[in-house]
Request: fold
Amino acid sequence: MNVTSILSNTQITEKVRILVVEDESILSMNLQETLELLGYTVLDIIDTAETAIEKAGELLPNLVLMDIQLRGEMDGIQAAELIWNRFQIPVVYITGHSDKSTLDRANMTFAFGYILKPVKEQQLYVAIQTALNRYQREQLSQSQRLNQLKNNFLATASHEMRMPLSNIKMTISVLENILEREGILNSELLSPFESLAV
Reply:
């Protein structure tokens, strides 16, 4: 079963916008062609980590496909971490490096997937859809946690605001009882604005 048949059975309700970060021009052109064939929109192809961070903030894609080994001082893992921390955009790594130290570094970031080169069409599709689904679930979960925190805060704040009023009412009631018992309070004779001193 190829990805084209998968897509014919699946409706993509929203165009997924992807930023590709790859410094090998032939591979980046192949990626763009494959992504567009799969129904995704390629916003741009970037070849350095620094530019990737800038473009991610500017274009706000749904997903970034990030090569790990890039030209320049910063690699794809550092860029992915900054993109996630600043913009909360999921990143799927694409790399030819599967050594343990690279995998460990990539896993220390908030990676949403890892694809080894050469990239196969079905593998790419599955990795992207898995990453997007995971991202949506985590956003929903985070939203639910925030709602629970908000509800807890409102319940506590409401309780704390009612308590002083209840205390004041109770104090007034106790004071009225004491004054009535001592015969000091005569509600018929005193207006609310008169002094209680006799």
